[in-house]
Write a structure and sequence with these properties.
Layout (H helix, E strand, L loop, with lengths): L2 E3 L7 E6 L2 E6 L14 H13 L4 H15 L2 H18 L4 H15 L1
Antiparallel strand pairs: 1-2, 2-3
């Protein structure tokens, strides 16, 4: 092990000894798993500069982007959000369950 953990893991800040120096680390050291990706050097440099300008490191920026990407493409969350919007619109327009049932019956009787 490269470091010696000196503070217990359940806190959000840890004091570790790494190469004879004591460092404070925010977050859980066991959280991360590595992912290797290949980038053109220019892209890596640009992204690193953008991350630095935001006060982040490259790993933090990539994690945020991947979280946003998966959140935007999570179909079940999208559908849940859609149902919430429909419910809000129905409540806003004072449309009741019986109003919906009447509309369904009307549409079905016209198409029969």
């Amino acid at each position: 092990m490269l470091y010696e953990e000196l503070f217990f893991r359940k806190t959000s800040v840890q004091l570790i000894k790494y190469k004879k120096q004591y460092l404070y680390i925010q977050g859980d050291l066991t959280m991360a798993t590595q992912m290797i990706i290949r980038l053109e050097p220019n892209l890596k440099n640009k992204v690193s500069q953008l991350a630095k300008a935001e006060g982040k490191n490259l790993s933090e920026l990539v994690r945020e982007l991947l979280e946003k990407y998966t959140k935007e493409r999570d179909m079940s969350a999208y559908i849940d959000n859609l149902w919430d919007k429909i419910g809000q619109n129905l409540a806003k327009n004072n449309i009741s369950e019986s109003d919906i049932e009447k509309a369904i019956k009307q549409v079905r009787s016209k198409s029969a």
